[in-house]
Amino acid sequence: MRQQFGDWFSLLENMGDLDEAECALLAAHREFLRELEITAMTKSFKMVLLEAFQELDGWRQAPAFAELAERSWQVLRRRRPLLADLPPEQAQLASGREPQWLRYWMSNPVNAWIGENRKAGEKRYFTAQDERFAPLFQVAEEDRERFAEWVQELVDYRLAAYAGRQSVRTAPVVALPVVPQMGTELPYFPNLKIARGHFKTGRADCEEYRLLGEGFGRLDPIRHFIARASGNSMNGGKHPIRDGDYLLLEHVSPSSAGSITGATLAIERQDEAGDNQYLLRVIHKAVDGSYFLRANNPDYADIAVDDGLTEQLRTFARFKAVLDPLQLAVGQRLLREEIPALFGETFNPGNWNSGHVFLPEAKAHVLLVTLNKQGKADEHRYLDRWVDERTFHWQSQNKTTPEGKRGREIIDHEKRGLSIHLFVRENRLENGKAAPFVYHGPVRYRSHSGSGPMSVVFEVMG
């Protein structure tokens, strides 16, 4: 393919799969996209840096080196198998803000991209400009979204190919000095949609990891994984599965599935184009010994598994449980408007633009904390800070007192069956836009002092 067409997007252009605007975009940036597709990779870092650059909206505004290094650290934490590429002294650093990490990142992928490691005469695509990582070419504003999609497609491809070559999945991952959390980190496949209506095409790539707490028996990251449900066919019965639910699944094969009658299984087949499709159904056995697939929703007809369909189907995974989104959100970055959905709520600016939200139906207090209060009037600069990795000092709004309704709910939240959830961000803005919060999970009241406002010490649970 590369000999004939030069690169992937030129092949798409030749096949007529790009429209006129996309052809013009390709013509303007063909060299860079080709470089991204073929650049040498002895480690994963060049692609990790580009993923971080895109997450920081780097095509619009060049990110500072420190900011880029910190986000690259977060990308590596999310793509945990790639941590094996780090030397032990870097993998054991506490965070991506450490000076040693910035020096290491500058001397490796940053230098590789800005040209200090390139041979004389080789074209450069990025440069150092006012302590920022800046592209040497411009992407038109109307093209940035599509261009970023193309770049991410190539980044995902290169990292997948690299993982295959290096056997990253089986490489030992150096443990980081973080607070131990109870549970098991399982692969999460955001692009793998398990359909609950009709067969739905999905991709089992772009793997991430999510920490799942105790209470699900013995979990094995090799066999167990997480995916999203899609559709309505299983939304019925005593245990409905709704559109968008997070599903805990266990890989099975025909030889390891055991008895499947009455079990809820994810079934895989390939369509005419060779793409994998997935369907969630309860397996039933008819009187004549044949099998059929049944939905929980009676609006959907049974699917008889005849000889023709048998040849197409493969038992893919056994359904284990529907997971609470909050269990999977710990450690994730979430914009303010994305947080309500974790609690089954709809975003309402009048309610959610404050730092303390109470949700009566969910019986939950949600604390949205910005540590750096620059730009706030003095009376609103609440003293919020981390005491240590497990302890957070939070200051309430000025009207909250220990004797008042909200103060009592904070102090007695466990007795009253209320939960408190902590979301924290460093600054209000990130690259000129509203910064996301990091979810630290539920917290437990430990002590308080003062009144109007109250100063409360919380223990991070888990």
Automatic annotation (TrEMBL):
CDD domains to which the protein is assigned, alphabetical: S24_LexA-like
Q: Which organism is it from?
A: Azotobacter chroococcum
Identify the residues that the record assigns to the Peptidase S24/S26A/S26B/S26C domain, covering every copy.
Answer: 219-314
What Pfam families has UniProt attached to this entry?
DUF3427, Peptidase_S24
Q: Lineage from the top down?
A: Bacteria, Pseudomonadati, Pseudomonadota, Gammaproteobacteria, Pseudomonadales
Instruction: Give the signal peptide as a residue range, or say none if absent.
Output: none
Q: Where does the DUF3427 domain start and stop, copy by copy? A: 331-448
Q: What is the protein's name according to its record?
A: SOS-response transcriptional repressor LexA
InterPro entries annotated for this entry? DUF3427, LexA-like, LexA/Signal_pep-like_sf, Peptidase_S24_S26A/B/C
